[in-house]
Amino acid sequence: MHRVTAVVVPPVLSFDVSIPLMVFHNVEHYDVRVCTARPGPTPTVGGPDIVVPDGLDAVDGADTVLAVGSGGEPAPEEVLDVLRKAAAGGARIASLCTGAFVLAQAGLLDGLRATTHWGLAADLATRFPAVDVQPDLLFVEDGGVFTSAGAAAAIDLCLHLIRVDHGASAANAAARLAVVPPVRPGGQSQFIETPLPPERGTSFAPTRAWALEHLDRPLTLTDLARHAGTSVRTLTRRFHAETGLSPLQWLLHRRVDRARELLETTRLPMDQVARQSGLGSADSLRKHLVARIGLTPTAYRASFNPSGTRADV
User: Fold this and answer.
1) pLDDT averaged over the chain?
2) N or C: which end of the chain has fewer CB within 10 A?
3) Are the beta carbons of 192 and 185 closer than 8 angstroms?
């Protein structure tokens, strides 16, 4: 079992505490625990107290340690000591939202890129000048330490950690059970260059869902506009307002994501992976995968699906 321990540092949002419980419990092989420096009733921001039964000894032996909460307030020294010890012992260290302030106080972000909720990013940068704060990313990995922005971005980070551990299929299954979108890329430099902007609207959500079911087709702007019952011009304008991307950019991201999942979970030849993801040819698959994550399809499959077909592209 992979032990995930969330270290809660009041003040904290009850939603943030629930995220690792919700996401990791949806996948086999994870044991999730929640602890705090003062077990028992723990104050939350704008809500009732929550009961955290375990003390900081729950961090001992954890494979992944998440710092959750603090709201930017000083963390107890014993929490900082526990986090430093866990990092020195080889645990994977991560933070959700304002938990980045806790990691920064522990000195675990010095010289690293990191992120937090956009509303507190400037404060993090001012208080901890040794941290390279990235306010526009969903989540960031640097030096083996992961940090996430607020709210849904914390879910994205937890799903990403599942993908790192068990591949796209497990992460997408966890996303479906949690009723959230599939994994959004966010910052791991080797495999993810840039995050997708968060979606801000739902009026074209049915069309996006339809497109995901037909990625193997050569979809055009006209096809999308016809399904949405609108003009190409209106589709393009409103689609960008909702997703931060043009319709064709969004489609390309989704096609590459589908190709990655097929590479991870099947033994399909590269030309079939390309066709089923809508990327056309094996050469096109190679071009887009290298541009997106810096790996050829063969190298990517070797990393995440060693039993898959090994024919080079």
Assistant:
1) 88
2) N
3) yes
258, 215 Cβ separation under 8 angstroms? yes
Q: Three-state SS for 207?
A: helix
Please work out, in degrees rounded to the nearest 5, the angle formed at the alpha carbon of residue 95 by the alpha carbons of 93 and 101.
110
Give the whole-angstrom CA distance, residue 62 versus residue 255: 36
Residues contacting residue 166 through CB under 8 Å, at least 6 positions apart: 27, 29
Q: Do domains 2-177 and 199-313 have the same CATH topology?
A: no
Contact (Cβ atoms closer than 8 angstroms) between residue 36 and residue 10: yes
Record the tokens describing residue 247, joined without a space.
């319709």
> pTM of the predicted model, to two decimals?
0.64
Secondary structure of the chain: what % helix, strand, coil (to 5)? 45, 15, 35
Nearest Cα neighbor of 254 from 141, 168, 178 is 168
What confidence score (pLDDT) does residue 46 get?
81
Domain ranges for the chain, please list them.
2-177, 199-313
In the chain, the amino acid numbered 157 is: L
Q: 199-313: which CATH number, 1.10.10.60, 3.20.20.30, 1.10.260.40, 2.50.20.10?
A: 1.10.10.60
Domain 2-177's class?
alpha beta
Could you list the active site residues? Answer: 97
**CA pair distance 5, 34, nearest whole angstrom:** 6
Judge whether 83 and 65 are in contact, CB under 8 Å: yes
Q: Residues 217-262: pLDDT tens digits?
A: 999 999 999 999 999 999 999 998 888 889 999 999 999 999 999 9
